[in-house]
Amino acid sequence: MLENYKSSVYEKNVERFLSAYAPEIHIYDCWGNWESVGISPWKANVEKWFNGLRADGVSLHVDFNDLVVEENLNLAFVHSAVTFAAHDIESGEKLRQMTNRFTFGLRKVNDSWLITHEHSSLPINLETGKGLFNLR
């Protein structure tokens, strides 16, 4: 599932990216909306994200760090620091990067893991109220 996440973001492949998510996905995202419920609104968010990357002329490299996976036969819990690094498609130069925290709740369906809950977050600077990027 994590390799699919990484490669489909890099390739900006919306359908393959969404194939890892359950139709009833419930997401708490640190960008824009408080939450997203169901695959249709999540698809709209992902399309906007990938189209923005195309417009900027960047490829996005994803790395999962400090990965913790707990699973049983049908449920899994994954948390990690996730770094997103944008590279210029033409030159390969790294333009920017950010790291935030992710938690995934997964359920096994027909021998495949599907994400049923995703939560991304950033710590907040209490003096400024702004998210703290790149603490790792």
TrEMBL record:
Write down the InterPro entries for this protein, in alphabetical order.
Answer: NTF2-like_dom_sf (IPR032710), SnoaL-like (IPR037401)
Q: What is this protein called?
A: SnoaL-like domain-containing protein
The residues covered by the SnoaL-like domain are 3-124
Q: Which domain of life is it from?
A: Bacteria
